[in-house]
Structures are given as C-alpha cells and as structure tokens.
Write a sequence for this structure.
C-alpha cells in the first residue's frame, strides 16, 4: 500500500534520524575520525556506537519489510477469498435468474448480479458475455470463470520470484 511504501521510504531516507542512510553516514564519519587518530578512545567508542546504530537500522528495516510482506500476503489471500465469494454469488444469481424467467423479480436479480459483476471487475479484470436468456458468462483472463450456475474459483499462488499471482482453478 501507499502507507507501507511511505514508511519504508522514511526508513531509508537520507537525513532522517535512525534511517539506514543516516546511520551509515554516521558510521563512516566516525571511522574517518578514528583513522586520523587510531589511539583515541573516544573515537573508538563512537565507532562502536555508530556501528551498533547502523546494525539496528538495518535490522529494523529488515523486520519492517518482513512484516509488510506478511501483511501484503494476508491481504492478497483475503482478496482471493472476496473474489471467490463474489464468483459464487454471481453463479447463484445466474441460477435464480434462470429459474425465475419471466417474473418481475428477474430484472432485480439481474441488477444485483450485474452489480456483483462490476464489483468483481474492480477486484480482478473480467469480461462478460450476456446470453439472450439473461445468463451472464464471466471470463477471467479470457477463460470462463462463471457459466450459468457453474463456476471456477481462483487461488493464490506465487511465481518463481515469490510474487503473488491469482490463478483460475481448473476442474
């Protein structure tokens, strides 16, 4: 999310207290001072303090990134659950529309189903083909995900680089 990226940028930003860049600059400066007078115990202590601060900044940033990655994966899994709930609901509306052909409630059912299709389109790209009998066939990545009351769910996977992907399940 934007907020996660903003926080990561702050941890890395030059001039920000406790950032990796600032703590690295402090460490390198203290090493330069020590190299001018290697016997000075105050410079030695400063190098140790700055090395500890730099190590903490690196570890803190690594912890933050691991937590962010976990949160992103959990959010991704929750999105997949939302997508599958919507897919099931659209298929159920298709079933009800087919049963209620010719009734006044049919257009209400179609409106509700079409809103779910629009919602699904916001979560994941879809294409829709409407049949003359009121049925909607929904495609994800040009593969049918919903056809009449039949549907296929999506699952969360990762590519070879560990990036999350959504895959349409096969029957």
């Amino acid at each position: 999310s934007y907020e996660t990226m903003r926080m990561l940028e702050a941890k890395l930003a030059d001039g920000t207290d406790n950032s990796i860049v600032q703590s690295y600059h402090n460490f390198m400066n203290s090493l330069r001072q020590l190299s001018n007078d290697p016997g000075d115990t105050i410079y030695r202590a400063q190098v140790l303090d700055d090395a500890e601060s730099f190590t903490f900044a690196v570890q803190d940033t690594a912890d933050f990134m691991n937590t962010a990655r976990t949160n992103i994966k959990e959010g991704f899994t929750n999105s997949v659950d939302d997508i599958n709930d919507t897919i099931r609901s659209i298929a159920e509306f298709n079933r009800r529309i087919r049963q209620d052909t010719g009734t006044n409630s049919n257009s209400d059912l179609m409106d509700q189903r079409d809103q779910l299709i629009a919602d699904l389109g916001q979560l994941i790209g879809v294409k829709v083909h409407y049949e003359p009998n009121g049925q909607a066939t929904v495609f994800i990545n040009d593969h049918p995900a919903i056809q009449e009351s039949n549907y296929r769910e999506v699952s969360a996977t990762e590519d070879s680089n560990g990036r999350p992907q959504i895959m349409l399940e096969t029957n």
About this structure: Residues 41-99 form the longest helix (59 residues). The mean pLDDT is 88. Strands lie at 127-130, 136-140, 143-147, 150-151, 154-158, 164-168.
